[in-house]
Amino acid sequence: MEFNLKFKDIDETRELKENFTINDLLGELGLSAQTVVAKQNGDLTIEESLINDGDEIHLVQIIYGG
Question: Measuring CA to CA, which residue among 45, 53, 48, 36 is closest to residue 2?
Fold first, then answer.
């Protein structure tokens, strides 16, 4: 079982662990949900969402400015 991750220059297939969530993925990458928005199969999703076999996860960096 696997999923596809897209983030900045990353476009890779990763092995899917059991009960793996968006939040777990962010933790592995050292990212915070406060600085990244997650899209699961093209739709915005929350950190508690489970990643399923074949999912495409696209992480988008939030840019702050003033």
Answer: 53
pLDDT in tens, 9-64: 999 999 999 999 999 999 999 999 899 999 999 999 999 999 999 999 999 999 87
Q: Where are the beta strands (DSSP E) in the chain?
A: 2-7, 10-15, 36-40, 43-45, 56-61
CA 20 to chain centre: 11
Residues of the chain by 3-state class (helix, strand, coil), percent to 5: 10, 40, 45
With tokens 């476009």, the residue in question is 11
In this structure, what token pair is assigned to residue 39? 């899209």
pTM for the whole structure: 0.91
Task: Say which DSSP state 50 is in.
Answer: B
